[in-house]
Amino acid sequence: MKSLQKLRQNDEYTDVTLQSGDVNIPCHRNVLAAASDYFKAMFECGLKESTSDTVQLTMEPEILRSVVDYIYTGEFELTVDNVENLVKSADVLSLERLKANCADFMISQVDPHNCFQLCRFSTLYGLDQLQKVTRQFICAEFKTVAFDVEFKELTSSELIEFIKDDAVNVANEDVVFEAVIGWIRHDLDKRRSSFEEIMKYVRLPFCSNSCLWEVKDIYDLLTPKCFEYLHEAMAFQKDVAHRERISSGRTLPRANYRTKPCLLVVGGVTTVASGDIDSKRCEYYKEDTTCWESLTDLPWSLGSFYNVCGVDEGLILTGGFSENALEQCWLYDVVTKKWESMPPLITARCHHRSVSLSGGVYVVGGRGIGDVLASVERLDLRRRQWSTVADMPQAVCGAPVATFGNKLFVFGGRDAYNTPLRCTQVLDTTRGSWNTQSDTPDVCDVGAAVTLNDSIYLVGGFRRSCLKYDPASDSWTRLSRPQLAHVNAPAVVWRGSILVAGGHDPEESSSVIETYDPPTDTWTVCDIALNAKLSGHCVFTIDLSAL
User: Fold this and answer.
1) Exposed/middle/buried for residue 239 (C-beta within 10 Å: 0-12, 13-18, 19+)
2) Cβ contact 514:524 at 8 Å
3) Which of 115, 232, 532, 536 has the most CB atoms around its CB within 10 Å?
4) Can you give the residue ranges of the BTB domain (predicted)?
5) 0.85 cut: is pTM over it?
């Protein structure tokens, strides 16, 4: 081949000239025919090209030079700028090995900003391995690529092909639903008619409750069939025991849905023989061994009185106190198993509460530098950016916080004079405005709030509270009290019951976990106990399938 290349370069024994624009490249027919079925067929077809000394090709001159060099040497230089044109030329000339080498190069270049373009290109030119890799990339990184500008330029049929894929890697269907809405809104007039067909493939039953509540914000897009899909999702979520009766493609879980929730305990203050110390541990309960296992140690120099909430990625830790209120924010990623420093809070605070809602983390009240705060701020998890939210009517610290639909409820707390409060403050996150609802019938001082089914429950605190709030009717019900006080203890929904873990009772920290069963209105001491006597800690259910 080196000798043939030298002969070509010296224009020796060449018998055909390839032309592109003003560029003429002398070649040998037998070499071209041996390398390419396209040239072989051309020289044998009996048409003028088979006998002509010149063959005109419709490709860029520099691309033709690269193709001829490849035919004679097996070597070529690939760049981001020339690879697509080389594929197109290789496809025309039936140079399959060149196409395959180009595809390998393109695979190494896949990123969130070009994956859809490369996937479409691979389909057009039959690059099977590139198509496989780009689809795998899109599924694995869906929550990132679904909000890139390329996603918004997909056709409706392309969009459906991607969201149909069981391998789409999302913790629940919220990201898929939000991506579809963004795609529709990008060209509303032309895409409105496609909405019903696309919604057939969105697995609404696996959306979060808050996401389903937000459907009313797109009421103008909903058709009768869309309402059927929505009612199916609500029925699926409500009737857990008989889900098998509700069967459709939308009720089949994706391969990456989180299916292994674990109890997770984070931080707090632990009681030891020498006194109380800040816990730096984060532990999960491993059911097959009935033991608490270490997940990670918290970052050093956190101080105390910070707050932690669970998000799809893992954990968000905010604020705290060390000589003064802190602005810190940390993310623990359950996939990488690492803590990452995040943009700081706008307002330094401690003794606050935080909660995840609609793709963001809301941080509520607390003590700032000098006083109790009415301020609220929100972290956009996708953009990793903080923004301010309208102030609460009443400044509070240590207030139990829960979400219901698209609303955030703040119950009681303490004011600047350390007086326990009974107020109920409600933020409508779609409107960004606050209002007040019925006061709590009893003070739930330093207790916790959780949402279960259609109600919010306030539990624990100094008065061993257990109150049920109905957001629909703005009414309260007193329920049976827990056996222990669980002061400054967290609560979480666990397998249809409410679990309250540790806390002070009345002055010493406890490791006891109690569970409340709403249908029977009864409390039971759980067989599981915390690994240490804790208060001021946080408890979640979180997916740790990778462990």
Assistant:
1) exposed
2) yes
3) 536
4) 14-80
5) no
